[in-house]
Amino acid sequence: MRAFLASALLSLTLGACAVLPQKPCAAGGQRQTAEIVFARVSPDAPGVSEADFARFLDEEVRPRFPDGLTIVDAQGRWTPPAQSKIRGPSKLVMVVLRGRSDDRERLDAVRAAYKRRYAQEAELVDNRSTCVSL
C-alpha cells in the first residue's frame, strides 16, 4: 500500500511539471523585447530619487523608445568586485523593440547615459524574442 501511495504521489508530482503546449504567436506578433534593470543605489554616489529617475526616462529613454515602455519597482542585490554586498531599490524597464538595425545602439546609449549621470557600474539588459500583442 505504501508503495502504491508513493508511486501515485510521484506520478502527480511529475505530472505537475509537464509543460503546456504554447499557442502559436499571431502573425507579426513575434518581437524582440528588452528588459533593463537600473540600480538606484551606488557605493560611490547618492541614490537616484523617483524624480531623478522620471526625468531620466523623459530625457533618455522615451526619445529612444517612443512606442512605450513598462516600469516595475524592484529590489537589487549584487556584489561589486572588491566591495561589500549592495542592496537597494531598482527599476526594471521593459520595452518592445522595433526590429530596427539600431535597436542595440539605442539600448547601449540608454545604459551609457545612466552610468554617466548616476555613477553606476553596470545595468543588466535581457533581450529575448516574445509573442507580443499590440
Short descriptors:
28% strand, alpha+beta, 3 helices, 134 residues
What does this structure look like?
The chain has 134 residues and is an alpha+beta fold. The longest helix is centred in the C-terminal third of the chain and has 16 residues, at 103-118. It has helices spanning 2-16, 50-61, 103-118, and strands at residues 30-39, 70-78, 86-96, 124-131. It has a single domain (25-131), classed as Alpha-Beta Plaits (2-Layer Sandwich), CATH 3.30.70.120. 32% of the residues lie in helices and 28% in strands. Mean pLDDT is 78; it is low at 1-6. It has three helices and four strands. It has a four-stranded antiparallel β-sheet, with helices on one face.
What is the topological layout?
Elements: H1 2-16, E1 30-39, H2 50-61, E2 70-78, E3 86-96, H3 103-118, E4 124-131
Antiparallel strand pairs: 1-3, 1-4, 2-3
Query: What is the tally of helical segments?
Result: 3
Number of structural units classed as domains: 1
CATH architectural arrangement: 2-Layer Sandwich
CATH topology: Alpha-Beta Plaits
- Tell the overall outline: globular
Largest sheet at a glance? 4 strands, antiparallel
Low-pLDDT stretches = 1-6
Q: Class, according to the CATH hierarchy?
A: Alpha Beta
Helix and strand run: HEHEEHE
In total, the number of strands is 4
Amount of beta strand: 25-35%
- Please give the share of residues in helix: 25-40%
**What is the end-to-end distance?**
54 Å
Mean pLDDT over the residues: 78
Please give the radius of gyration in angstroms. 21 Å
Strand order, largest beta sheet: 2-3-1-4
Query: Based on helices, strands and strand pairing, what is the structural class?
Result: alpha+beta
